[in-house]
Amino acid sequence: MPTVSMFYGIIIQMFWNDHPPPHFHALYGEYEALVDIRSLEILRGDLPRRALNMVQEWAGDHQGELLENWEQCVSKQHPKPIPPLV
């Protein structure tokens, strides 16, 4: 699973053969959540509140890039790196 960004111990990854709706995986320690790219809500899993707030802030800033990466993955192409939250 390609990593598209990392910040503050959070890893953001996307699968090539993943299922709709467009989403990404956010990993933080033993936690993992699938986050909807359009609504920025958790589809499945869990993250601590602080990590979730950072993920949602980052995803809101990079929503267009995340949707482009989703299309890349659907086309079986490698997603592009996205700058971390600063």
Strand proportion? 25-35%
Number of domains: 1
What is the makeup of the main sheet?
5 strands, antiparallel
How far the N terminus sits from the C terminus, by CA atoms, comes to: 24 Å
Q: Low-confidence runs (pLDDT<50, min 5 residues)? A: none
The structure class reads alpha+beta
- Report the average pLDDT across residues: 95
Work out the radius of gyration. Answer: 11 Å
Tell me the number of helical segments per DSSP (H or I, 4 or more residues long).
Answer: 2
Order of helices and strands: EEEEEHH
Strand order in the sheet with the most strands: 1-2-3-4-5
Number of strands: 5
Shape: globular
Explained architecture:
The N and C termini lie far apart (24 Å). It is built from 2 helices and 5 strands, in the order βββββαα. It is globular. It is an alpha+beta fold. It is 29% helix and 30% strand. The chain has one domain. The relative contact order is 0.23. The mean pLDDT is 95. The chain has a 5-stranded antiparallel β-sheet with strand order 1-2-3-4-5.
Give me a quick take on this structure:
This protein is α+β, with helices and mostly antiparallel strands and 86 residues long.
Key words describing this protein structure:
2 helices, 86 residues, alpha+beta, 5 strands, 5-stranded antiparallel β-sheet
Furnish the topology, listing elements before pairings.
Blueprint: E1 3-7, E2 10-13, E3 23-28, E4 31-36, E5 42-46, H1 49-61, H2 63-74
